[in-house]
Design a protein that fits this description.
By secondary structure, the protein is mainly alpha-helical. Helices cover 66% and strands 7% of the residues. The chain has six helices and four strands. It has helices spanning 2-25, 31-63, 101-106, 109-130, 173-240, 246-280, and strands at residues 67-68, 72-73, 135-142, 160-167. A two-stranded antiparallel sheet has the order 1-2. The protein has a two-stranded antiparallel ribbon with strand order 3-4. The longest helix has 68 residues, at 173-240. It is rod-shaped, with a radius of gyration of 39 Å. The two termini are 27 Å apart.
Amino acid sequence: HQVQVFEEAVVLAETRYQGVVQEVLAGDEPAIDSIEAGIQVQNRKLDLQQSELDFANASAQLGVFLWKDGLVPLELAENTVPISTDEIILGRKDIELRGDIDSLISSHPAMLQSQIKIDQLEVDRRLRLEQLKPDLNLNYNALNQAVNGDPLAQYSINNYKWGLSFSMPLILQKERAELRLSNLKLQDADYSLTLKQQTLVFKAIAALNQWETTVQQFELYTKTTDDYLTLLSGEREKFSIGESSVFLVNSRESSYIKARVKLLELQVKNQQARLKWLHSLNIIGQ
């Protein structure tokens, strides 16, 4: 869209330059005006070339993310262009999700990943606790001898041997140290989970604030751009009746072009903020 703006600007500058040259040749304008108009053409062409370079690089960067099933890279068609700016909606439909931030963050994959780590550490802590318990073994062995291959031929419940063994470390320094370390790891993981949750909430709110602000900025600067166009139209009218100069017309026109470019940038920032907002809540694909 910036390319289109500068293409129009070059056409306007070239048309004015040809008109000024004709008036200079007719003796109605000083020769210096043709130099002024020619410089403006050169500057506009420079801006156009830069915008074309930016568009080409952006298209190449987009191609990095185009893949077909089976990890086959795709190429962006040369005639691919963005949708019209009129089709971009700067609405507030998704902003109503503000009240659901906490619930959406709690189900975020980053939060679930941290929770799995905490669950693993909890299992490790329970294992360390088990290692602190004494070891008690109870054995029962039947005293019997098989007859003709039958192990139950002379079996009697009165013939048995009981066994009991009990063991417990006297100091438990290693086991207690490992338990304390496990508790510290679990505590650290809890703190990390809380920090991650707060970070995700901050990112979501910051993106939402930027989204809402850029909507307001776009609406405000749309009026500003229209006002620049009104000034330019008035200056052109004055120039047509000989009450203005090429310099003033070029100045008004340059201000209007810059306003249009800035309006496009605000529109882009708004859409980027919206995507950051949805991405921070893990609903980018919805």
